Amino acid sequence: MLNPEPALAISPDPLKCDGRIEFNLNGRTVQVIVKLANIHLTPDNPTYPGGSWHVEGMANEKIVATGLYYYACENITESRLSFRTVVGEGDESGLWMSYVENDDQGWYSAFGFSGGQGMNQVLGHIVAEEDKCVAFPNIYQHRVEPFELADPSKPGHRKILCFFLVDPLQRILSTSDVPPQQEDWSMSEMVRAPALRELPVELFEAVADYARQNTISRKEAEEHRERLMKERAHFVVEHNEKVFELEFNMCEH
């Protein structure tokens, strides 16, 4: 939790940590999920309305940190990436915390929120600039703030390369374990195989039918993508309601 700056300067005691505060990846094979995320603006669509507060991925992806590289920014106003953290454990509406009933002003002064408000604190932001790299742990939520074209008569864009680091201690299923599943690719590769080209048509078709059982068409892939997007959208809403935007309850104990 972050408290607002006090009125008078103080000298806090040095931070003491008996546990491990460093984790070395040297010599380890790490898994990352890679994504390209581009925002294009045009004179007909000159404004980006901003993104939603979220953490990256879901539990099965085990993402522990994110690395971003802004490799292209052109003709846009200042673009910010904001961060916030949850206060407490993210459950029980703050009933585990000690407070005086209806002490809204005290809690707002100390933590930046009061009764009836979400139990989170905004940590600040970074400015997206071309050739900038940013890395942060996945314990924080983040969102892209609104921006627009600097010159509304010309197109503009903001392009980033994302690396989502998977927990190095928990390997997950990846593309190194799953062969290509595109139906078109599978058929084109079979036609190129010398041994299969020599088969009678009937046998070739029988082998092809068997191979197709483990492939999907582009239409099927897009249907899977739509279901995935809906699942993630629901998760973001639910995660906010139950954790980051859980209302702080200052009712009578």
Automatic annotation (TrEMBL):
InterPro entries xref list: DUF4246 (IPR025340), DUF4246_C (IPR049192)
Superkingdom field: Eukaryota
Domain DUF4246: 24-187
A Pfam family recorded for this sequence: DUF4246
Protein name listed in UniProt: DUF4246 domain-containing protein
Organism this protein belongs to: Trametes coccinea (strain BRFM310) (Pycnoporus coccineus)
